[in-house]
Amino acid sequence: MVKLTLEERIAQLEARKQALKARLGKQERAIDTRRKVLLGAMLLDTVERARAGQGRPEDRDFAIMLEGWVTRELPGFLKRPIDRTLFADFITPGENSKTETEQ
Domain extents for the chain? Predict the structure, then answer.
């Protein structure tokens, strides 16, 4: 077995460090994505239950307020047309992004 020089050993360790950092970054992105999906699912469920007249009155009031906020803010947040189609129930037809009309 060939003995590695210190420089070669350092290069191997640095390569391993980079691979571990990349794996950690991937793991952090996956956690962030999962949090966003779960929060979005909860908010959509809240609005859908309010639309169906379900839940406690105070929850329905909050859901109506939430729906109004989402309807107002979402068009300016979504930039790609394909993303906008996913939220057609929150965006009135022909509505442009606030940022697009202001620019």
Answer: 6-92
